[in-house]
Amino acid sequence: MSFAEVDAFAVGRITGQICFILLLLAGILKCITISKRPTTNSKCVWSLACFLAVFLVPAAMNLLPKESPVFAPLAILARMFWIGLCFAASIILAIIGLVECGRERGRFIQGRAQAIWALSLCGTFLIFSMTGAAVVLMRAQNFKNQSASRGLLAFKELNFQFSAPGRPWMQADEYVAKQFVGDLGELRDLKIEGLDEPDSPFVVNFTYLARRQFQILENEIAGSPPLNIERSFLIDQTVEKRTTPFQIPVPLTIEGSVTIHVPANFKSEPAGVAQNIQNQFISCRFSAMTNGTGWRLEYHIYEPSHRFAPEQYPAYNLAMRQVVNTLGPNLACVRQ
User: Fold this and answer.
1) Could you state, in chain order, the average pLDDT of each consecutive group of 10 residues for the chain (336 residues)?
2) What b-and-e string marks burial along 244-273, b requiring 16 or more CB atoms within 10 Å of the CB?
3) Which contacts qualify for 118-122: CB closer than 8 Å, 24 or more apart?
4) How many C-alpha atoms does 1 have within 13 Å on its Cβ side?
5) pLDDT score at 146
């Protein structure tokens, strides 16, 4: 983090890091003060000070500027060396100190608790670190074992074929499915129009199947339709106070039809909803009807291109969230 960054997030982060460093220094100084007492086993107390020092250098290095390209590898090596050194020193000093406290019970009346705390914290930290490393390795191995190749891809209308590569490449429909539908979805069809026609609209048509979107509550199944695609296009990251104008450079049209099927032994509750939203930011027509197998939702959204003043940004975000909330009504079906 560079001190040249003056935004609110950077200031808050730097302030938090400085406070954390000061707390670590206070704890280390307290341990040093206790270790000077004649009835204290200094090794036990220094073991806790070494554990606190594990986080001191990495926290301080986060405050340094990182413009230099050689900074990253040097910083990683320095952190690894410091953390390993302090951990080893903490564990060794704690064990030696506890042994000395056991041999000379009448001499040392303080320090045993600090050594036990140091060993407990070191063990907990190592367990979490090893668990995290194991999870990362397992994910990497699964990613390596999964093949993105689907064999020989043939395009008869274009008179060519090629063999799809493996990871990290993936087919376009698989990528779209993961981004918009999620891991529980299945992309059934994907068509893209207008790529080679600059004056024509860019159109993406796709059909997908989403599973496990509703929850079972005893004799009732309830939930809302997935809105990953709509939310990704309509919801922006809000800011506390916008000072510059914002612009929608390209008009956006989203048309959708959602069919929700319920189990055979459940009956869908009525959802005769029809809403129209019209304002300067967006227009939306939405309807939800009950049928024999569940519900059918249809909607048409149009967001025109326009330039807006900074003070209109809160109203814009509110209008977008109103549309998203309209598209996701709470639906329920009961067991017959």
Assistant:
1) 54 84 90 88 90 86 64 78 89 90 82 89 89 81 51 68 64 61 71 81 85 83 85 80 88 92 87 86 92 89 92 91 90 87
2) eeeeeeeeeebeeebebebeeebebeebee
3) 118/44, 118/47, 118/48, 118/50, 118/51, 118/90, 118/91, 118/93, 118/94, 119/47, 119/91, 119/94, 119/95, 121/51, 122/51, 122/87, 122/90, 122/91, 122/94
4) 21
5) 47
Residue from 232, 254, 242 nearest 298 by CA: 254
Question: Which two three-digit tokens encode residue 228?
Answer: 């990953």
SS3 per-residue string spanning the chain: CCCCCCCHHHHHHHHHHHHHHHHHHHHHHHHHHHHCCCCECHHHHHHHHHHHHCCHHHHHHCCCCCCCCCHHHHHHHHHHHHHHHHHHHHHHHHHHHHHHHHHCCCCCCECHHHHHHHHHHHHHHHHHHHHHHHHHHHHHHHHHHCCCCCCEEEEHHHCEEEECCCCCCCCHHHHHHHHHHCCCEEEEEEEEECCCCCCCCCEEEEEEEECCCEEEECCEEEECCCCHHHHHHHCCCCCCCCCCCEEECCCEEEEEEEEEECCCCEEECCCCEEEEEECCCCEEEEEEEECCCEEEEEEEEEECCEEECHHHHHHHHHHHHHHHHHHCCCEEEEEC
pLDDT at 323: 92
Structure tokens at 57: 């250098």
pTM more than 0.70: no
Q: Tell me, what's the pLDDT at 2?
A: 44
